[in-house]
Design a protein that fits this description.
Helix content is 31%, strand content 17%. With 432 residues, it is of the alpha/beta class.
């Protein structure tokens, strides 16, 4: 409150003396770093409160509100409530460079929303290549793809996309945008694949909004979507599409293999039961009991977000990671500290720079990679967030019968979502 009063006094002074024409109001600082580029941990329209304070003291200058104003709806709310004269939407226009024209034309439902994830924009700072965007891989590749637009194919083809995760969704959408006749076959009852499970983690519902956006776009583009439709190689061959894109995703290995303990091909004692994958937890296929250990190998949202969900559901949580901190891979996106803070508030125990040597069915033997000390931690269940295996069997079966198909996303190699969406777009653009 004191900082706001001091800032308002300074702005009012400069406004009164005619030294400023406008003031831009964000949040955070290098003393409160994590709000500068707010992730899902923070509410939307984050900068509107301070903007309203400043607007109340100026008589001449215009006030611009920024910080987590993601959508046209956010912007209209800030302006209609008189909190600011203008709004600044940056990441939202990286996610969809057509945001302003879509809003002007009265079709905000067509805006592809920013996920507030920072993975490919802020998260790529200080690196040797351009920023991009998880949901808009054309960002930064304008020199290659001509921006977020599609040229119509001179010879439209029939395209079969097998798999409705984000790789398949983007491939189907982009191919249809180019005028191809597209069929999307998904083995499950819903679109989204593993990305939908990520959207069920706390405060990550923007992912579900993105999947809803894909569904609307596919409907408008007249893509034939077939749910509950598993297609094997023979059925794909019989379908007879001109082009086949395989986006069949990946599967948990269920071996407990840890890269930091590579001499153990399988976690000793895994057959004792009460071991579940992070995917099974988020899909509500597992009943993990009260005390839970989460092995988070990669330090990313898959493990940490699942742990957060378990903690919020009231489980007594221990997180084991080979990294030096929980959420290590998330550090570059400024999502790690707020997540660790929340987990700590929920009573989670952190065991870092460690691995699991054995599982008894009721306890895990933990080893420290620093000093080799071992301890047993009792638990009702062990949750594994380890590297998945590509689900590429049907692609190999197609190769054996001489049918060419493009392999994309996790089916090519399990990786984070940006790579899957990029490969979906790229595969579609390669269809001539």
């Amino acid at each position: 409150a004191l900082q706001r009063e001091a800032l308002a006094e300074i702005v009012e002074l400069h406004d009164r003396s005619g030294d400023i024409d406008y003031v831009t109001c964000g949040v955070g600082s290098y003393f409160d770093f994590y709000k500068i580029m707010p992730t899902v941990h923070y509410p939307e329209k984050l900068g509107s409160g301070l903007a309203s304070v400043l607007k109340g003291v100026v008589k001449n200058a215009l006030v611009t509100a920024e910080a987590h104003i993601r959508t046209p709806e956010n912007a209209e709310t800030v302006l209609s409530e008189g909190h600011a004269d203008l709004v600044s939407i940056v990441r939202g226009q990286i996610a969809d460079p057509h945001l302003a024209i879509k809003a002007k034309e009265g079709r905000p439902e067509d805006v592809r929303g920013c996920l507030s994830c920072n993975q490919m924009c802020w998260g790529r700072r200080s690196r040797d290549y351009w920023i991009s965007c998880v949901v808009n891989p054309s960002a930064g590749r304008e020199f290659e793809w001509g921006g977020d637009r599609f040229a119509q194919s001179k010879s439209p083809k029939s395209v079969l996309v097998v798999g409705g995760g984000v790789a398949g969704l983007e491939a189907a959408r982009a191919a249809a945008e180019m005028g191809h006749r597209v069929t999307l076959a998904e083995a499950g009852s819903q679109l989204g694949g593993a990305f939908r499970l990520a959207g069920l983690q706390p405060r990550r519902a923007q992912i579900l909004d993105l999947i809803d956006w894909y569904e609307r776009q596919l409907m408008k583009l007249q893509v034939e979507v077939k749910l509950n439709t598993y297609m094997d190689a023979a059925e794909i061959a019989t379908f007879g599409a001109d082009e086949v894109i395989m986006a069949t995703g990946s599967l948990p290995p269920e071996t407990g293999f840890q890269k930091a303990l590579a001499h153990l091909e399988e976690l000793p004692g895994i057959a004792n039961g009460n071991v579940f994958s992070a995917e099974a937890v988020m899909a509500r296929e597992a009943r993990p009991g009260k005390r839970v250990i989460v092995l988070d190998e990669a330090g990313n949202w898959k493990g940490a977000g699942t742990a957060w969900k378990l903690a919020e559901d009231g489980h007594e949580l221990t997180i084991v990671t080979p990294a030096a901190m929980i959420g290590s891979e998330m550090q570059r996106t400024a999502a790690d500290f707020p997540l660790r803070r929340r987990l700590a508030q929920l009573g989670a125990r952190f065991v870092t720079e460690s691995g699991i040597l054995e599982w008894s069915g009721k306890a895990a033997k933990i080893t420290s990679f620093l000093d080799g000390k071992e301890e047993w931690i009792e638990a009702d269940a062990l949750i594994l967030s380890t590297t998945n295996m590509a689900n590429d069997a049907e692609h190999h079966a197609l190769e054996e019968i001489g049918i060419s198909a493009r392999l994309i996303g996790d089916a090519a190699a399990p990786r984070p979502a940006p790579y899957a969406i990029h490969e979906g777009r790229k595969a579609a653009l390669q269809i001539r």
